From TrEMBL:
This is DUF2079 domain-containing protein. It comes from Micromonospora sicca. Keywords: Membrane, Transmembrane, Transmembrane helix. Residues 78-375 form the DUF6311 domain. Signal peptide: none annotated. The chain crosses the membrane at residues 26-44, 93-113, 119-138, 145-163, 169-187, 194-211, 217-235, 247-267, 320-338, 347-365, 398-417, 429-448.
């Protein structure tokens, strides 16, 4: 593995005392946990009644995935395809983010404390584990100084991208996978490690595919680019030739093990029912603004002081937002390291620089955008966007690769300054001030949270079972989609509390039906859900005719709906919902409702 300047040039020097290293490790663990709890502190007051303000829809989705995954484990059901949502077609979770490994590992906790609290536990552990995994890689393999490892690891664990994705993304906050994958790849070069290392890496690849397939894809691309640039450097060619046979054998074992474990998920992903190509998101919208690299994120000390910007497509995608001081510091770190490095380590620096630049440019998307204004300048991603797999990636997330490169430069620099400090105290002070000016504004602030509507007693008390046959279909109003996720929250509660199964039409998932054969969020709309969406969103009751009544009843029978339910308060993830307009619209379509517990209920007459 590429080493730091100190390890590369002075391998015989002694390490710090074991006791001091252990004390540093303990401090790092406490710091990582404290920051994780600080970032998620808004939900710890009561996970069951609070939601992440800017992304409560994704939170509801991941809570549902945890409940469904545990249910699939205890009931022997397929964890990658379900008919509980999107009746009658079902949903292909292999082309969605299924987090099956998380759902199975944490199933006992989900049954014990419920999906919302389990979601919070995983989110908090993700953040802490990401920083600690990077610390392990740095301190054990790349740098000598524990302080250097801590600086780099804490930046990578709580950089703006990680904090923004902490807005309910259990997949992207699982950054602890990346340093493990990196170490697993480099361990393959050791002679005699092909089988053991290949098996371990193959299992890790399968786990990463389950938790964050897109992140695994980006990590593979970044490693391939880094290794390609690193291997062609003249100073590394002899080392590459010596390690290549062992590396290729280990890579073959990795491919075999991962291929066996992922054979069915990959078939389902590329050839199974309800598959699609591309994504349901516009790459022009979900691309990084060039100016965002020099801006500050909203959930940071600088953002709290009013210096944040809104250049990201949404608050969960602040994938760069390093700020100009950090960019300048990264350049200064590179220059210092380059000047003091031997030829071998310069190959590592060169590979890191090329990787950062390539992924930064790719993150800008199909065409360039500066400070919110789109230009007509075609960029490399615009050419690559038509390639399979690449067309399913959001270009702005490619900026996630840049943060670890900056973190490595920070760690290498602190390590170099610790082992060979500047001769002048003024120079040492300048470096300290530079690090402070670059990193202090990026200190994270807690995620925004708000109170969410409680699950109705109609669900929690199990009253729904009196109105829906076992495995029958129930739908809330409006129908369940990303902006109105109540149905999946109700279903998650029923599954986690072992009440039994009810199915719902629609749902928050990616499926076919988008333009040009691409994916879309939820199924294509029908008459009944379009009317309900219009009423709930605008507060206006649409004009109801005999034709719309007939079409709406046909839609409900197509979905096999037995009961239509409207709670007193509906959770709108992006806007407020008008419950009165929904009730009047449903009454015009289905007749007067009956009051059951704390909901209005309409029974759908059979054909």
């Amino acid at each position: 593995m590429p080493t730091s300047p100190s390890l590369a040039t002075d391998p015989s020097s002694g390490s710090a005392p074991v006791a001091r290293d252990r004390r540093a490790d303990l401090i790092m663990v406490l710091a990582a946990l404290a920051l994780a709890i600080w970032v998620t502190s808004g939900m710890w007051r009561d996970p069951n009644t609070r939601a992440i303000t800017v992304n409560s829809s994704d939170q509801a989705l991941f809570e549902w995935l945890l409940a469904f995954g545990g249910h699939s484990l205890t009931h022997g059901e397929n964890p990658l395809f379900t008919h509980l949502i999107n009746v009658p077609d079902g949903a292909n979770l292999a082309v969605n983010t299924s987090i099956t490994v998380y759902a199975w590992v944490f199933a006992p906790l989900t049954y014990l404390i419920g999906p919302p609290a389990t979601f919070l536990v995983i989110l908090t552990l993700n953040l802490a584990a990401t920083a600690l995994a990077w610390y392990w890689l740095l301190s054990r393999h790349l740098v000598r100084s524990r302080l250097a490892a801590a600086v780099g690891a804490l930046f990578m664990g709580y950089c703006p991208a990680m904090v923004s994705h902490a807005n309910a993304h259990l997949n992207w906050t699982a950054g602890w996978l990346v340093p493990l994958l990196i170490q697993g790849v480099f361990a393959l070069r050791r002679p005699g490690n092909a089988i053991r290392g290949g098996v371990l890496l193959g299992v890790l690849v399968a786990v990463a595919f389950s938790i964050a397939a897109e992140g695994l894809f980006f990590t593979a691309l970044a490693l391939a680019l880094f290794l390609g640039v690193w291997a062609v450097q003249p100073s590394r060619r002899a080392e590459v030739r010596a390690a290549l046979p062992s590396f290729l054998r280990g890579l073959g074992v990795t491919a075999l093990v991962a291929g066996v474990l992922l054979a069915y998920p990959l078939w389902l992903h590329f050839a199974g029912p309800q598959r699609f190509h591309g994504t349901g998101f516009d790459p022009f919208i979900h691309s990084e603004d060039i100016a965002a690299y020099g801006s500050y994120p909203r959930r940071s000390l600088a953002g709290w002081a009013g210096l944040g910007s809104s250049l990201a497509p949404n608050p969960t995608e602040e994938n760069s937002f390093f700020g100009i001081p950090l960019l300048l510091l990264a350049v200064a770190c590179f220059v210092l390291l380059w000047r003091r490095a031997d030829r071998a380590f310069r190959a590592t620096l060169w590979a890191l620089a090329v990787t950062a630049v390539v992924f930064a440019v790719l993150s800008w998307g199909p065409t360039a955008k500066w400070n919110g204004r789109r230009t007509d300048q075609l960029l490399p991603f615009g050419v690559l966007d038509n390639l399979p797999v690449v067309n399913a990636a959001l270009p702005s997330r490619l900026a996630l690769v840049v943060a670890p490169v900056i973190g490595l430069l920070l760690a290498y620099t602190v390590d170099r300054l610790r082992t060979a400090p500047p001769r002048h105290r003024s120079t040492e002070l300048a470096w300290a001030l530079g690090f402070a000016a670059a990193l202090l504004p990026l200190l994270p602030t807690p995620l925004l949270t708000s109170v969410r509507e409680p699950i109705p007693a109609f669900i929690t008390a199990g009253t729904w079972k009196q109105h829906v046959s076992p495995g029958g279909v129930l739908t809330p109003l409006p129908l369940t989609v990303d902006v109105t996720p109540d149905g999946q929250r109700w279903q998650a509660y029923a599954l986690a509390h072992r009440q039994g199964e009810f199915r719902i039409p629609a749902g928050f998932f990616l499926g076919p039906g988008g333009p040009d054969g691409r994916g879309r969020i939820g199924p294509p709309p029908r008459t009944f859900d379009s009317l309900m969406d219009q009423a709930g969103r605008t507060g206006l009751v649409p004009i109801i005719t005999d034709g719309t009544i007939k079409e709406s009843l046909a839609d409900l029978r197509y979905w096999h709906v037995e009961a239509v339910v409207l709670p007193d308060r509906v959770h709108g993830a992006k806007y407020d919902i008008d419950e009165d307009a929904l009730r009047r619209t449903a009454t015009d379509l289905l007749g007067p409702p009956q009051r059951v517990d704390d909901v209005w209920l309409w029974k759908v007459p059979p054909v």
